[in-house]
Write a structure and sequence with these properties.
Blueprint: E1 23-28, E2 31-36, E3 42-44, H1 52-64, H2 70-79, H3 88-91, E4 107-108, E5 120-121, H4 129-143, H5 153-162, H6 171-195, E6 200-208, E7 214-223, E8 229-238, H7 248-259, E9 265-270, H8 277-288, E10 301-303, H9 305-319, H10 321-334, H11 338-350, H12 368-379, H13 381-390, H14 400-425, H15 435-449, H16 454-483, H17 490-501, H18 505-531, H19 553-562, H20 571-577, H21 590-597, H22 602-612, E11 630-631, H23 634-637, H24 641-654
Parallel strand pairs: 6-9, 6-11, 9-10
Antiparallel strand pairs: 1-2, 2-3, 4-5, 6-7, 7-8
Helix pairs in contact: 4-6, 6-24, 7-8, 9-14, 9-16, 10-12, 11-13, 12-14, 14-15, 15-16, 15-17, 16-18, 17-18, 18-19, 18-22, 21-22
Keywords: DNA-binding, Metal-binding, Nucleus, Transcription, Transcription regulation, Zinc, Zinc-finger
GO molecular function: DNA binding; protein dimerization activity; zinc ion binding
Main location: nucleus
Length: 674
């Protein structure tokens, strides 16, 4: 008699095992059978037979059909009383739930806008090996895991237990998947930048490896249409070992052409303030073939503010090395034994020092550690002076003059440390925040140069010479950025320049005012050309192709300048004539202010957006005080150039998905620990 003609029996008791979702229990004479609903195979269904043989059959049967067997595995583990299971919540039935009801699947989304075929239902969907492999590659990119992790036995055991259907592939296959993700994301970023109506700023960073290989990192900075500061790594180029400095301009120009942003470039920021001017000149010449640079290029060449602070801090520490060597010897002596440390603590109490700081030695790779050492040692100055009288074995004695030098240098290092922290720790550092800090450094250096102490004044002269090189290149763009801060406008320039330049301040202030007006007029012409339809499609920028470089471009400028009537007040005049915005607290959001006031200053807001997006410093929290530059970790240094660029760039582009969980610098994961 065929099984299918037998009637299903009433079960004397509730069938609680999940396997009964896949079997029908029937009786033939006095024997019970369990019939698989997938393949109609007939197995023993007696209550004495248990369900292990049914589960084993299902594992084979469902795998052939590419069904997810995670629920069966979870149920098996739960019987063994394993404390943790991914699917506990999915296999527990409520009191009134029938055994033949399927559990509503939990939905997992791959990205913010998944396709219909990208939605996965746990426990009820077909398994997709290709999709899982891309998920794994994506995880490796996002968290900087090594590609070889797929060949680690621990990872393979974990994956096999989690999803037996997953076929572990070699690292070479995962590498190809990572490059595939990189190429797709690059298309998205490229489209995003090309559709952007404003200008783009480019930061240039030099990296090295433990094996002394050199890399060039190019990062685009801009304020988007929603007035959010954006930062995208465009390239991480491996430089040929035979390259020379003058070849850097070729690498940069090639990147500009690759991303088609030559015509959109507003400024370039070099992380080394001593970068050869010829490199910048070659890039300027290449761009000038397409379009004129704003302000004759005075705003184009920007050097990192954090780097110049790093340089002058090193000058100060180097000049003080004889004194710092004595301080190191003093600290080592105090810490040489518990007896000496105890004696020193007693002396400190005798002279009334209740030190809150601990005596520590500085590091050879972080210049801010020298400031920390000096600060602590100076707090215990009285104890060290008494120690030399009470302990003849203490020989690292400082004179009163040396203590004075240490105090002065410490104060200046503290200023540099505070400003560097301000530059590197701010989440969205807009260009307006740098002017006042740099001016303060300028004033302090001028004061130190006037010191009656020849030692201190000579140090100051050396520091100021490097600072002046930076100031010559960057003072105008710093000041322009300050002017478009509604809390300051030209008033902040007037305040600081009167202290810096004295009797010649008015001439210097006029240079800034003229620079702002010249830049604004260029944007006004751009706006006029957009209105006349001579700009790039969908862009607020003037057309820069050869077709648009007609002989009447000068007439456009003449028409704009001569069409201004007394009744027509420009955005800039209106902005400067109105009172400054109250400076209350430190939570002022300048990007939001300009977003709100765009209707009132339509042309000036275009200019403000591009200027505010200029990176005035390339310092990251982990490298702001480094004495050795940026060093790539050994793992990423060992990769092929294409794979290295793919992993570093793709991680930066995918990073937006992790911002809510772990906001950080994009390149933080690649810096070698010192």
């Amino acid at each position: 008699m065929d099984v299918s003609t037998d009637s299903a029996i009433k079960k004397p008791k509730r069938l609680t095992s999940i396997v009964w979702d896949h079997f029908e229990r029937v009786r033939k004479a006095d024997i019970c059978y369990a019939v698989c609903v997938h393949c109609n195979k007939k197995l023993s269904g007696s209550s004495n037979s248990g369900t292990t043989h049914l589960r084993n059959h299902l594992m084979r049967c469902l795998k052939r059909l590419n069904y997810d067997v995670s629920q069966l595995l979870a149920a098996k583990r739960r019987k063994r009383e394993t404390p943790l299971s991914l699917t506990n919540v999915n296999v527990n039935y409520d009191e009134g739930q029938r055994k033949d009801e399927y559990i509503k699947p939990t939905i997992v989304k791959y990205d913010q806008e998944p396709r219909r075929d990208e939605v996965i239902g746990i426990g009820s969907s077909r398994y997709d090996q290709g999709r899982s492999q891309l998920d794994l590659a994506r995880m490796i990119i996002l968290h900087s895991y090594p590609l070889a992790m797929v060949e680690h036995i621990g990872f393979q055991i974990f994956v096999r237990n989690l999803q037996p259907l997953f076929e572990v592939v070699p690292s070479s296959s995962i590498e190809l998947s990572c490059i595939e993700i990189y190429r797709k994301e690059k298309q998205k970023v490229n489209g995003m930048i090309n559709e952007f109506h404003g200008r783009v700023n480019l930061a240039v960073e030099m990296w090295s490896s433990p094996e002394n290989a050199e890399f060039l990192c190019l990062i685009a900075h801009y304020v988007d249409e929603n007035w959010k500061l954006q930062k995208k790594i465009l390239n991480f180029v491996t430089l040929d070992s035979s390259h020379t400095d003058d070849m850097l301009s070729e690498v940069i120009n090639k990147s500009l052409m690759e991303w088609d942003i030559e015509c959109k470039l507003f400024a370039m920021t070099f992380d080394d303030s001593s970068t050869d001017d010829n490199i910048v000149l070659k890039i300027k010449d290449r761009i000038a073939q397409s379009r004129p640079l704003f302000g004759n290029g005075q705003l184009f060449d920007v050097r990192s503010a954090a780097h110049v602070l790093n340089l002058i801090a090193q000058d100060a520490i180097e000049a003080l090395q004889d004194v710092t060597q004595k301080i190191r010897g003093s600290i080592r002596y105090v810490k040489s034994s518990q007896v000496t440390q105890g004696k020193f603590n007693e002396i400190a109490q005798q002279v009334g020092i209740n030190g809150q700081k601990h005596l520590v030695l500085d590091s050879s790779v972080q210049w801010n550690s020298t400031y920390t050492m000096l600060e602590a040692a100076l707090e215990y100055k009285g104890a060290f002076c008494l120690l030399q009288e009470l302990d003849p074995a203490y020989t690292s004695v400082l004179t009163d003059t040396e203590w004075k030098w240490a105090e002065s240098i410490k104060d200046h290092l503290r200023l540099f440390v505070e400003i560097t922290n301000t530059f590197s720790r701010k989440k969205s550092p807009t260009a307006n925040m740098y002017f006042s800090e740099i001016c303060h450094v300028h004033i302090k250096l001028i004061e130190l140069c006037k010191s009656p102490d020849n030692f201190l004044s000579s140090i100051a002269s050396k520091m100021k010479a490097k600072f002046d090189d930076y100031w010559t290149k960057c003072s105008l763009v710093l000041a322009v950025a300050a002017v478009i801060d509604p809390r300051f406008k030209l008033k902040l320039v007037e305040y600081y320049y009167s202290q810096i330049y004295g009797s010649t301040a008015l001439d210097r202030i006029k240079e800034v005012s003229d620079g702002v007006k010249e830049l604004f007029n260029a944007y006004s012409i751009c706006s006029t050309m957009v209105d006349q339809g001579s700009a790039l499609p969908g862009s607020s920028l003037p057309c820069t192709s050869a077709d648009c470089r007609d002989r009447l471009r000068g007439f456009d400028k003449f028409l704009h300048e001569t069409s201004q009537t007394q009744m027509a007040i420009s955005d800039l005049d209106k902005y400067l004539d109105e009172p400054v915005f109250p400076r209350n607290g430190s939570d002022f959001d300048i990007l939001n202010w300009w977003k709100v006031h765009t209707p009132r200053y339509p042309i000036l807001s275009m200019m403000a957006r591009d200027v505010l997006g200029t990176p005035m410093s390339n310092a990251a929290p982990e490298s702001g005080f480094s004495l050795g530059g940026r060093v790539l970790d050994s793992y990423h240094s060992s990769l092929s150039p294409d794979t290295r660029q793919a992993l570093i760039c793709a991680r930066d582009w995918l990073q937006v998905e992790l911002e809510d969980h772990n906001p950080s610098s994009s390149l933080t994961g690649y810096v070698k620990a010192h």
